[in-house]
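User: I'm preparing a small set of examples for a lab meeting where we compare how different chains pack in three dimensions. I only have the primary sequence for this one, and I'd like the structure in token form so I can line it up with the others. Please keep the answer compact; I'll paste it straight into my notes.
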Amino acid sequence: MASIIDHPAFQPRPTLAQFAKGGQWEAAWAFGIDDAPSPEQVRDYLDGATEVAFEAFFDFAFFGIRLRGIAQETVRRAVECVAAFRSAVDGASFFTDLSRRLELDTLGHDLKFVEVGAVNAWRSVGPFRIDRLIDFSEGFDPLWRSLSASSVGSDVLHRKAIEFAYDLPVPHWFALPVSLPTAPFQLDSDLLREAASAVLSAD
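Assistant: Understood. Below is the structure token output for the 203-residue chain.
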């Protein structure tokens, strides 16, 4: 069965990445290919942390993975994420290399839940969780009304994304843009439908 990894949005080379500790994306440490951090800089940033999340951006789409473990192992895995990001020539090579470095079998299978949120303000704005995936096809209008009335639906200061989250083999997520590309960043119902349809038909 196809995976969300095969979606066209994740085919280009990622050009931006970031780390966040404790889910604090508002204070994320972002970097590009040319200024990707050294292992020493990653170690200093983590400062003994046993949890960190890494995200790689493919223009407006992004992939994220949460790393947990003893401090030394968390540093090692975070450094491997940077290495995969820096050496990628396209999306396929990035995911292949990352999976090899982190010893992951599969990514983007067995969807756990879906959320719509504000990019780099996921917690502060507040995400909108969608538990009934069938609503995308059979109850889209009431779903859209509820989403539009929510805190993330009312926000126009941040780009929005629909995030597809998976638990295995480790917590990770893929996100596609669902707002207009320029401010004000209003939700776009067509983008939401397209993203949900493409991913849910593949899962």
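A couple of notes for your slides: The longest helix spans residues 71-87. Residues 4 and 199 are 6 Å apart (CA to CA).

User: Perfect, thanks.
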